[in-house]
Write a structure and sequence with these properties.
Helices cover about 0% and strands about 45% of the residues. By secondary structure, the chain is mostly beta strands. Strands 1-2-3-4-5 form a five-stranded antiparallel sheet, with no helix packed on it.
Length: about 55
């Protein structure tokens, strides 16, 4: 499942395995992971993670 922010600068994907939200920028680069309940960033960006946008 994937969502896009209103300003189209961020993409959000649901990480079913870990129960968190992964955040990517508009170019597909990983920006970190958010807690699904609070929205607080819980993991730092990983350079090896990208999505096709």
């Amino acid at each position: 499942m994937r969502w896009r922010s209103k300003d189209k600068q961020r993409y959000y994907t649901w990480d079913r395995r870990h129960g968190e939200i992964e955040v990517f920028n508009s170019r597909g680069y990983h920006l970190g992971a958010l807690d699904a309940q609070s929205g607080v960033r819980i993991k730092d960006p990983r350079k090896d993670r990208r999505i096709d946008v």
